[in-house]
Amino acid sequence: MDAFRSRLGAVGRWLLPPRCLLCGDPGHEDLDLCRDCAAELPRNASCCARCALPLPLPAALCGRCQRDPPPWEAAWAPFRYGWPLDRLEARFKFGRDLAAGRSLVALWRGQSRPLALPEVVVPVPLHRARLRQRGYNQALELARPLARALGVPLRHDLLVRTRSTAAQSELDAPTRRRNVRGAFVLRAAVPLPSHVAVLDDVMTTGATLAECARVLKRAGVVRVDVWALARAPSARR
Ligand SMILES: [Zn+2]
Ligand SMILES: [Zn+2]
After folding, report:
1. Which residues have CB atoms below 5 A from the ion given as ligand 2?
2. pLDDT by residue (tens digit) across 9-50?
3. How far is Cα 146 from Cα 148, in angstroms, rounded to an integer?
């Protein structure tokens, strides 16, 4: 099926060469973005190594991580959440625009990868009601090609979201934490790897990723990392 889809994609690209999703110019290197728009995407080059919070200078730990360390080991979030990436992300997440999703993955794949790769990548699961409504899990759609490119197995059956939670974007940080508490469980009787990366599309306060990390660590996973395409600049955890 995948081979068929990629052949179909190749034919589609021959008939319709890629155009920039943001400005309409010809796409650059098979991306649905032109060179200028791709260069404008905000990179998260200097950040906290632990939580990926954007900082003026790179640091091992930001002030907040020193005071209150998160339940994961390291974060990988190569972009900052802002113009024009937020537009692509909104089209991908809410507009069923899978071309935007493909471009986001292509951008992510092109970034320098973490030194310590996990044994498996686990996308943050959607509740089945949300999945029915949206038709796809945006974290899984990003995780699948990224994991393949990194040569790391994908496990989307490890965690289950048992509660449909209110949309996090509407909430402040303490409410976000409460909102996701107890929302995930481990699928029973699956053997656990010792090093897992949990992947989400955007990391805002990190509340969702932290809750997933806690569940995995309580079950005996030794090291959890968190991966997100983009990190919001200054939300509180
Ligand atoms: Zn453009
Ligand atoms: Zn930090």
Report:
1. 48, 50-51, 53, 62, 65
2. 555 555 677 889 889 999 888 788 899 998 889 999 999 999
3. 5
